[in-house]
Amino acid sequence: MAKKSKKQQAGGTPATVALTAAGVDHTVHSYEHDPAHPSYGEEAAEAMGVSPDRVFKTLVADVDGALTVAVVPVSGTLDLKALAAAVGGKRAAMADPALAERTTGYVRGGISPLGQRKKLPTVLDESAAAHPTICVSAGRRGLEVELAPGDLATLTKAVLAPIGRG
After folding, report:
1. Taking a C-beta distance cutoff of 8 angstroms, is the pair 77, 44 a contact?
2. Of 127, 137, 135, 133, which Cα lies nearest the Cα of 166?
3. Which of these, 125, 122, 130, 61, lies nearest to 97 by C-alpha position?
4. How confident is the model at residue 11 (pLDDT cuts 50, 70, 90)?
5. How far apart are the C-alpha atoms of 59 and 54, rounded to whole Å?
6. How far apart are CA 36 and CA 158, in angstroms?
7. Running DSSP on this structure, what letter comes out for residue 55?
8. Helix boundaries (H) for 68-134
9. How many whole angstroms separate alpha carbon 33 and alpha carbon 41?
10. Which of 103, 107, 109, 134 has the largest CB neighbor count within 10 A?
11. 61-96: buried (b, 16+ CB within 10 Å) or exposed (e) per residue?
């Protein structure tokens, strides 16, 4: 079993530890998660008082047999054809949730594009570039991290592409 860093033991997640280690400016937002809320992302936006256009959800898809991460605004949906095209693939479908959890090391509703167990190709919706900061999951339900979209793209080696539908 891997040892946890002191930051992880003190309540950090692999995502927040990765941000701190990289020296990236970020703000962690914590809120009380309501298991009855129908949407993790909309709940986060409401709890933080942030426009849903600035809160992004992390989805894991299967593109031609390879898991791929899509980061899109919670106010919209993922365009699977556009995601496949963004990574040079032909077909995309949502990944099995259990496989996504095992591969990323995070639970559904708390999957972060940062600090994943296995580094996956990542595509960030181009709308992120319109905001000085965006919020993404910090690695567990009820925990979000706010950072510059360029920093997120750099850390995840993400491609920016029009993969969200409003």
Report:
1. no
2. 127
3. 61
4. low
5. 16
6. 32
7. B
8. 80-86, 97-104
9. 11
10. 134
11. bbbeeebbbbbbbbbbebbbebbbbbbebeebeebe
CB 143 within 8 A of CB 136: no
**Global pTM exceeds 0.85:** yes
* Helix ranges, the chain (H): 6-9, 14-22, 40-48, 80-86, 97-104, 149-156
- Say whether pLDDT at 5 is over 70: no
| First and final C-alpha spacing in the chain | 42
Distance CA 72, CA 26 (A): 19
Res. 66: pLDDT tops 80: yes
Do the bridges between strand 66-73 and strand 122-125 make them parallel or antiparallel, or are there none, so unpaired?
Answer: parallel
Tokens linked to 73 = 């605004």
Is the Cα torsion angle 99, 137, 155, 162 positive or negative in sign? Answer: positive
Over residues 54-65, the pLDDT tens digits come to: 999 999 999 999
Name the residue among 113, 98, 110 with its Cα closest to residue 140: 110
Amino acid at 66: A
* Residue-wise pLDDT tens digits, 70-104: 999 999 999 999 999 999 999 999 999 999 999 99
